[in-house]
Fold this sequence. Notes:
Blueprint: E1 10-19, H1 23-34, E2 39-42, E3 57-59, H2 69-76, H3 87-106, E4 113-114, E5 117-118, E6 122-124, H4 125-138, E7 142-144, E8 149-155, E9 160-167, E10 172-183, H5 203-210, E11 215-216, E12 223-228, E13 243-246, E14 255-256, E15 259-260, H6 262-269, E16 274-277, H7 285-294, H8 296-304, E17 314-322, E18 329-330, E19 344-346, H9 354-357, H10 366-389, H11 392-395, E20 398-400, H12 418-429, H13 432-435, H14 440-457, H15 467-492, E21 516-519, E22 525-528
Parallel strand pairs: 1-2, 1-10, 2-7, 10-19
Antiparallel strand pairs: 3-6, 4-5, 8-9, 8-20, 9-10, 11-18, 11-21, 12-17, 13-16, 14-15, 16-17, 21-22
Helix pairs in contact: 1-4, 1-10, 3-10, 5-15, 7-8, 12-14, 12-15, 14-15
The chain binds flavin-adenine dinucleotide (FAD).
Residues 19-25, 42-45, 50-53, 58-59, 148-149, 184-186, 194-197, 199-200, 203, 234-235, 321, 324-325, 348-350, 363-368, 371 line the site of flavin-adenine dinucleotide.
Amino acid sequence: MTTILTNEPLELCADVLVIGGGPAGTWAAWSAASRGASVVLADKGFCGSSGATAPSGTGVWVIPPGGDARAEAKAKREALGGYLADHDWMDRVLDRTWRNMDLIESWGYPFPHDGGATVRRGLQGPEYMRLMRNVVAKAGVKILDQSPALELLVDGNGTVAGARGIRRQEERPWTVRAGAVVIATGGCAFLSKALGTNTNTGDGLLFAAEAGGEFSGMEFSSQFAVSTAYGSVTKTAHYSWAVFTNEAGEDLEAVKDGHYSASTIGRALLNGPVYAQLSKAKERPEVQAFLRYAQPNFFLPLDRNGIDPFKQRFPITLTLEGTVRGTGGIRLTDGRCASTVPGLFAAGDAATRELICGGFTGGGSHNAAWAMSSGSWAGEGAADYAIGLGAYAHARDVTGAGGAGLRAPSDARTRFDPDAVIAGVQDEMFPLQKNLFRTEHGLRGAIGNLDGLWQSVGGRAIATESARDVQRAREAAALVATARWAYASALERRETRGMHRRADHPQIDPAQHHYQHSGGLDRVWVRAG
Ligand SMILES: Cc1cc2nc3c(=O)[nH]c(=O)nc-3n(C[C@H](O)[C@H](O)[C@H](O)COP(=O)(O)OP(=O)(O)OC[C@H]3O[C@@H](n4cnc5c(N)ncnc54)[C@H](O)[C@@H]3O)c2cc1C
């Protein structure tokens, strides 16, 4: 173990530890506390302003009960998702989201009014997450900010029994002994800088795998979103008002039914610059005003560059959001969001969202609904499980399950440079030719390179001068591991389904209408689920 981790730790005991304080984590913490559990919530950043929801407005999949509206809502994305979504799970999420939105309203969220009724189609991230932090704190949850988890603790049977991490501002480790742990660390956007995602480095996936957990749908990790070429704001709803053009000014006809096609834009980007202009709102000042009100941060990079997006075209690019608006994640085994590892639960983007999205992005509505629903179930499930253990929960002998980047022989030759590893992962994940338009040849090459990177982090630690170093080392390990599960799964799915596009298998194949599970660290495995 390295120096910083031997400083005197903060030691806590709780029934439930929640790792991650975005919507999934806060709903899990509140739900567990409401079940009578003592709860600690640890976030890498600041619970209330970290993660993908906090910075911006979020559409929510909230459909009133009764009539045909829910059947229509479920049908809408089924084909896009490659028919992998599960109707029972969709029904559960729609029910739970409806109830949770009632709670949010009762807690004082300022929903707009249309006449007398409140309009509950979306939530403004900053207000929503500030509210959730207050609600969680009021419920008695102990919040550890700036406290990234580094590894899970397991008992002699391999059951998860807490976690260990670091208090960044105090340069001091923390340990929480817990009866159950909820992983709610979000997805993995590979440090692309997509809005709100730079704490989403796949840490929770690495922790789960180190404890023996499995994943599902990791091939659905190729979510690329439009941003300006000089900014990383990937809020994209406004592009339904856009016309995308090439250098010559020709319309790429990339927008259909209000959605842009990433593959159309991606193909054009491989041939030269692509531009967007919100031309469809050019003569609509009332729409322009609404767009600015609804999503102010969309305009920030444009305003800073003196661009009027309604009158001028601006260069755009595609930025990787990976599994954040992709759908792969920790495999769940039941309706309480339990994982395959006893004592470990998962929620939000850290868990697979195939159950309600299939292989299509859950952005725009489904993911927000999933985060609050799965968070609630995971929190309740973890509370019941932990309370059921009684005093035994904290009497167990435990050890740290973490490996890559954290533990190694003291031999200096085993140390590595996390930033070089991260750059190496990005070289495999960012190029459109490799990740958006996948081929067997390209995937095999990338997997070879990623395996090489894993060799350089697996079983190695970092020279730890600071909390930042040790956090960075674990992030590097998590990024390599997540990339390997994503590409190994992509190689096995020899078809095009949902967001997973195989240039060498451009059609959907009815024989592959199944989930794919994956896992493993030194040896990555994939099998039909
Ligand atoms: C630009 C953009 C726009 C989007 N718009 C929509 C939309 O309109 N509708 C919709 O449904 N979805 C949308 N999404 C997706 C939505 O934001 C996510 O699905 C949602 O935030 C998931 O919630 P979460 O709690 O699982 O993860 P997050 O909100 O990402 O929170 C994860 C938390 O875990 C913390 N964390 C990470 N690692 C650690 C660690 N090692 N230790 C402790 N804490 C850790 C992070 O700091 C973070 O606070 C959008 C995503 C993006 C990127």
